[in-house]
Amino acid sequence: MRPRTVKQRRFLFFSAALLMALGIAAARIIRLPFFEVATPQRSDFTQQAIDLGARLSAIGNCETCHTVSISARFAGGRALQTPFGTIYSTNITPDRGTGIGAWSEDAFRRSLREGVARDGTHLYPAFPYDHFAKLTDADISALYAYIMTRQPLRAKRLGNDIMFPFNIRPLLAGWKLLYLSARPFQPDPARTAEWNRGGYLVEGLGHCGACHTPRTMLGVEIASDAFGGGEADGWHAPALNVKSPAPIPWDAQHLFVYLREGFDGLHGAPAGPMSEVVRNLSRVPAEDVRAIALYISTLAGPLPPDRKAQSEALLAKVMASPVLVRNETSASRGEEIYWGACSECHEPSSLGVPFALSTTFSQPTAYNVIRIILHGIRPPHGHAGPIMPSFSGSLTDAQIAELVNYLRSTFSSQPPWTNIDSEIARTRNEDGSPPSPSVVEK
Ligand code: HEC
Ligand code: HEC
Ligand code: HEC
Predict the structure, then answer these.
(1) Exposed e or buried b for every residue in 390-404, given b needs 16+ CB within 10 A?
(2) Are the C-beta atoms of 182 and 113 separated by less than 8 Å?
(3) In angstroms, what CA-CA distances link 68 with 76, 381, 430?
(4) Which listed residue, of 87, 370, 385, 401, carries a Cα 20 to 30 Å from 184's Cα?
(5) How confident is the model at residue 240 (pLDDT cuts 50, 70, 90)?
(6) d(Cα 141, Cα 135) in Å, to the nearest integer?
(7) Dihedral pair phi/psi, residue 246, rounded to 5°
(8) How many C-beta atoms surround the C-beta of residue 210 within 10 A?
(9) Distance CA 167, CA 145 (A)
(10) Using 50, 70 and 90 to split pLDDT, how confident is the model at 380?
(11) Does position 81 have pLDDT exceeding 70, yes or no?
């Protein structure tokens, strides 16, 4: 039958295009399994490779994402919240039955570069292989040496809770076909070796953009707005490019101190998922952190003169009177709460950063300040670090809203936040406790 109407012809045209797309995708859907190999022994690797692997693993946050309790390192089971549902990290200890003990180095390399498990299953990009694809062969070998020499632990994979149709793994092949680039990091010959090292680490192993870059509805990082501010586990990861909301613009030196030591006098301390990133960076060679800081410091381009003038004026003001003057007669309710609940630790600013300098109050959303107030600040399970109490039991939703509005208007020059009430309700419902009990079978 020949298509007669325009409608029929169009239908046939689109069907053909669809079939062709499916055909191309099919070639990518079916990935062959790698054979099981004998679990490598420590003597199969040099100590040098294992040590390098340890440092790379820290920069890649491998342990952070694959660990729930420090008594079961790399055993997986950590829940990652995504717009498509909850995905659990897997056991990457060299246990043969439940971990990756039977994986060859080729299988391991394919998982990092292409997001395909040993048995050919497609993996979700919650595992940031779209960044790890940029790793060199040598770095992947070192990571393999390190991971395969950890203690094997038996811990079964937890079932994901992902909404239809995203729970159909073969669909990931189409996602990869469209969005996964296997291009290695392209060094810029006009830049220094240190900058290029920083770029390799930031774009690849460090996967900083996985949190700091906004994503499309399909979870794809928007390349044209790289480092324009993203979301991670309900937290806002602020922009690091020209859109950075930091009241005092970042430079390489302050970035280095923040990333290395976890506190910078002009910007404050990391909270939420960033505190784990920083804890990991405190364990890697300082030169790598310097290179990361240098690369990040150039994302925003040269500092515009008006931004420079504004930040200098703010700094002069804060230095001249670091202590807030209490408004005894006509204080708003939010201000009263501030003096009752917060000032003890945050005023005078001996403890942390003066609030006027903290990026927290200048961010586009109130996500982080609400999370800090409701969950407090606690170091990850089993680690030391600064502690701020949770106010979830002592402040009502209405009081938190008043406090948050007061903080925004006092410590930022940005317009008021919206949707504060719904965000407080949402945060109350989430579990803010650091990951705890282990899933390991003893
Ligand atoms: C942001 C969290 C995150 C980080 C960081 C991360 N992973 Fe994963 N990884 C996951 C998740 C989630 C999965 C499971 C994906 C799935 O089930 O589709 C996974 C799966 C894997 C797998 C496949 C295991 C299997 O049983 O199929 C390997 C291997 C792996 N990760 C190694 C690593 C290494 C090595 C690093 C560090 C360089 C790392 N991961 C960093 C979240 C992460
Ligand atoms: C798992 C998600 C995640 C990853 C990965 C991540 N960050 Fe962050 N980052 C955040 C969040 C969330 C914040 C906000 C923390 C806060 O409010 O204290 C943040 C804050 C920051 C800040 C402070 C910004 C400001 O103006 O206050 C810098 C700088 C930063 N990150 C750099 C990096 C670099 C460099 C990397 C890669 C090595 C990285 N981040 C990887 C989530 C992440
Ligand atoms: C018992 C002491 C204590 C109290 C009370 C307290 N905090 Fe904190 N707060 C801390 C510590 C410690 C930190 C981490 C160090 C830092 O960032 O200054 C912190 C950090 C913060 C940060 C992150 C600042 C940054 O960018 O580095 C915010 C925002 C914050 N607190 C808000 C509040 C608010 C709002 C209140 C009142 C409801 C409050 N805090 C009460 C101890 C406290």
Answers:
(1) bbeeebeeebbbbbb
(2) yes
(3) 7, 8, 17
(4) 87
(5) very high
(6) 10
(7) -60, 125
(8) 18
(9) 32
(10) low
(11) yes
User: Which class for 159: exposed (0-12), middle (13-18), buried (19 or more C-beta within 10 A)?
Assistant: exposed
Ligand 3 and 360: CB distance under 6 A: yes
> What is the residue whose two structure tokens read 């410590």?
411
Asked if residue 271 has its Cβ within 6 Å of ligand 3, the reply is yes
Ligand with an atom nearest the CA of residue 339: 3
Ligand 2 pocket residues where CB is under 6 Å: 202, 206-208, 210-212, 232, 235, 237-238, 240, 244, 246, 255, 258-259, 267, 270-274, 277, 292, 296, 359-360, 368
Torsion sign (Cα): 199, 288, 261, 72: positive
The two tokens of residue 381 are: 């399970």
Fill in the amino acid letter for 413.
Answer: S
Q: Report whether residue 364 contacts ligand 3, using a CB cutoff of 6 Å.
A: no
First to last CA, the chain: 67
**Cβ 346 vs Cβ 407: under 8 Å:** no
CA–CA distance, 139 with 117 (Å, rounded to integer) = 19
Q: What is the pLDDT of residues 288-300, one digit of tens each?
A: 999 999 999 999 9
d(CA 238, CA 414): 15
Question: pLDDT per residue over 332-354, tens digit each?
Answer: 899 999 999 998 888 765 567 88
Cα 350 to Cα 322: distance, rounded to the nearest angstrom:
10
Report the b/e string of 111-139 with b at 16+ CB within 10 A. bbbbbbbbeeebbbbbbbbbbbbbbeeeb
Q: Amino acid identity of 383? A: H
For residues 78 and 89, is the Cβ–Cβ distance under 8 A?
Answer: yes
Percent of the chain at pLDDT > 90 equals 68
Distance of alpha carbon 128 from alpha carbon 291, whole angstroms = 21
Q: How far apart are CA 115 and CA 107, in angstroms?
A: 10
CB 131 within 8 A of CB 73: no
Amino acid at 343: S
How far apart CA 134 and CA 121 sit, in angstroms, is: 21
Comparing C-alpha atoms, which of 136, 367, 323 is closest to residue 233? 367
| Beta-carbon count within 10 A of 271 CB | 19
Distance between CA atoms of 192 and 294, rounded to whole angstroms? 10
